Amino acid sequence: GCQGGTNNTNLSETNSDFGNNGTCWRFVSRGSGDPYLGQGGGTPQYYEGTDTFERAGPALGSNWNTSHTACVPEIFNSSDFGGGSTNVRCLATWTAATFGNDQFSEITITSFTTNDQVAAVVRLSNGDNFYALVSDGASFLLREFVGGSGATLVDLSTPYPVAGDTIRLEAEGSTLRAYRNGSLRGTTTDTSFTSGANGAYTFRADQGPTSRIEYWHGGSLNVQGGGSGGVSCEGSSGLCDDFERVSLGSNWTVVAGTPQIYSSSDFGGATADAYNLVYWSGSSLSNNQYSEVIMSALPASHQVIAAVRVADASNFYGLRATTTSFEIFKVVSGTPTVLLDLSTPYPTATDTIRLEVSGTTLKAYINGVLRNQTTDSSLASGSPGVSVYLSGGTPTSRVELWRASSASESGGGEGGGGGGATP
Description:
With 423 residues, the chain is mainly beta.
């Protein structure tokens, strides 16, 4: 019932308005070592995958394997996943990252009619062996497919999903769990498949399916990560990077300065008096989005910036943290302007700051608590990112972990506030 995805847990019976009247928690794992000492468990195994399908089609692109069946899924209306073949599953799996055997697949439904199926898929191998969470508007089933033949493991019964709902299938060991809008609807055990890829499909027996999927999100469960003292991406909903490697890699686009990874654990920058700014280009997100960073070092006068709607070095929104200031600002055509001074208490190292934009509304959070919000209409599109900066010098401020996703615009569904068009 809390804003931000299915990994949040509603801890208050009076929770409403996305948590403004209640309490929500998101836990960040410290790896397999002692959580109080911050001992990590080695290099993280993955980043989570997301796709909003908001691009020109028809091809899904190189992040997807579409060769599993005779039906090749496509992008429809520059916004949705779907397929056109009769009586063939239009199935695709994510290939941009390798996930652990304990994994999840989550989809948001654009539309379907009776007999039009949509499904979240996990542990697919050989194209026709996998688990699926399937709905057609008149049923809700947890199924397994062996050699292409399906069998129902759990009939999840009513209420059935409707357009706009998000359904999620998790496989952990031999346990399978089914969710609708963040609420657990059923669980069972099965040992048929222990590994494989995850993704989604659409299907209709008597004609080409008209069902559509608006958003897909998948990844590993229970990933251990982080070096000594590092946090990990476990439990994160959406994109996540803990910088536990040597270089930034191809998922990031550098737009200003010399952003880089330090000590195989932290994001930083090597250019003086520059934003040292990157934005995420590994997958696309809605223009309604958030960027969230956990800081690991924040010396006096040095800045850490969570950025959204980054178009280039001269156009973006930022939430700027220093030891003596905390503010929402914008850079338009190269000119920075403070939009809102958030006042004290100012952030410190190890704090989490988050900037969220939805429409013209910008919201600033620190450690999960909304500090304040404002409106601005200067920038309507772009990607989430992160930056470090020091006026007149080389910044030594550092970021330990970055998260981002599309921002929810509306709630609803089971659990009160768990729905919405995009997680």
